[in-house]
Task: inverse folding
C-alpha cells in the first residue's frame, strides 16, 4: 500500500468530468423536429442517428467533443439529472413530473408542442360538476402531475399508473378520467374520449446537469449559446 487515499465519488461526477460531452435526445416524434435545430446549432450526428431501426443508442458527431445518446423521452431527464449526460432535450411534461433539482432548463426550444390534459368519455362528460367531486380515479403515466392537479382543487385522486393505452382505461372500468399528453386529440376521439381540461402546455427544453455546469462552465455555456443562436430568426 502507498498510503494514498481515494476520495469518494459524488454520483454523476465521474460522467460529468470525463471525456466527451453527452447530449441525450428523445426517441420518437421530437427526434424529427429536433433535426433542423441540431443542424443550425452545428451538430451533425452519425448517419444512423435518425434511423429508429438502428440498434445503436450512442452516436458520434462531427464534433469529437460531443456524442449523442438516443433514449426514451421519460429517460432523458434521468440521464441528465444523474450525470450520465451533461445536456439533453426534454419535454416540459417530463420536467413537471420528475422535478429533478439537479436539472437546469435554460432554453425553451419551441418544438414538440402539445399539452397535458384531462379527458373523459364523451357520453359522460359534463354529466356532473367537477367542483363537487371529493375523489376521482385517474389513469395516467403522470401520477405526480395528476395528484398535484386534483389536490389543488381539493380532490383526492386515486391514480392508476399506466405506461400506455390510457385511452382504454375508462371504457374498461379502470378509471373515470385519464391525464395524458395530447397533440391533435385524434387518439382521444377514436377511443370515445373528449378533452375536458388542459393542465399545461408543453414544449421541449434544453436541459443541463447543474454539477456539469459548475465543473465545465465554459463548455456547457458554449453549447447553450449555440442552441440559443440556432433559435434566432
Result:
Amino acid at each position: 500500500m502507498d498510503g494514498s487515499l481515494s476520495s469518494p465519488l459524488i454520483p454523476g461526477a465521474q460522467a460529468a468530468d470525463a471525456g466527451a460531452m453527452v447530449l441525450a435526445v428523445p426517441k420518437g416524434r421530437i427526434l424529427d423536429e429536433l433535426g433542423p435545430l441540431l443542424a443550425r446549432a452545428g451538430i451533425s450526428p452519425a448517419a444512423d442517428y435518425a434511423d429508429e431501426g438502428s440498434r445503436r443508442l450512442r452516436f458520434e458527431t462531427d464534433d469529437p467533443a460531443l456524442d449523442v445518446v438516443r433514449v426514451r423521452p421519460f429517460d432523458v431527464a434521468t440521464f441528465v439529472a444523474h450525470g450520465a449526460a451533461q445536456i439533453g432535450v426534454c419535454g416540459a411534461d417530463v420536467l413537471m413530473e420528475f422535478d429533478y433539482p439537479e436539472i437546469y432548463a435554460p432554453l425553451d426550444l419551441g418544438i414538440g408542442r402539445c399539452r397535458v390534459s384531462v379527458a373523459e368519455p364523451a357520453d359522460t362528460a359534463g354529466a356532473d360538476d367537477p367542483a363537487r367531486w371529493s375523489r376521482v380515479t385517474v389513469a395516467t403515466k403522470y401520477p405526480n402531475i395528476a395528484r398535484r392537479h386534483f389536490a389543488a382543487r381539493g380532490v383526492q385522486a386515486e391514480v392508476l399508473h399506466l405506461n400506455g393505452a390510457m385511452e382504454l382505461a375508462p371504457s374498461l372500468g379502470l378509471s373515470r378520467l385519464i391525464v395524458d399528453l395530447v397533440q391533435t386529440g385524434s387518439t382521444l376521439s377514436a377511443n370515445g374520449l373528449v378533452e375536458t381540461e388542459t393542465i399545461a402546455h408543453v414544449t421541449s427544453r434544453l436541459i443541463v446537469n447543474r454539477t456539469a455546469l459548475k465543473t465545465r462552465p465554459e463548455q456547457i455555456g458554449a453549447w447553450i449559446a449555440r442552441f440559443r443562436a440556432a433559435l434566432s430568426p
Summary: Confidence is low (pLDDT under 50) at residues 1-17. The first strand starts at residue 21 and ends at 26.
